[in-house]
Amino acid sequence: MIKTILRPVLVSAATVIVATQASAEIRGADPNGVLRAMQNVGYVAKMETDSQGAPMISSAVSSSKFRVFFHGCDSSGMGCTALEFSSSYDNTNKYGADKMNEWNTNHVRSAAYLQSDGGIAVYMYVNIDKDGVSDSNFADTLDGWRQDVEGFESFIGW
Known about the structure:
Yope Regulator, Chain: A; alpha+beta; 39% helix
């Protein structure tokens, strides 16, 4: 009889633990939460707004500045569905599309492109819609971004 009573209690407790572990802390609905998450793992980051009035974070990794653009936001700048990490560089070596395509062929997390002003950029798109992402997942995403920025800089001889 004790086994019968305890089994549902243990199953319920296990469900609560699993649900708690799976809950997301970083959500597009809270751009300031994204800012805090970056700061919590050691980034110096500042909240700003982009040219359309959407939230934007300015920060740096290694020695390069980058921005985090928020996409799919509602009119109040909240409820955003995606993040775009982006770092731009002067194209002093005059690299063309072939060089950017070489990067893109060998990297799945980030992509590079030629900018309309002649510069080059690397970016990474992150879906932060629906249930968001956990703190540890976001920290891992930031580390992946750092690796790609450093790799891209080496790739272009920066």
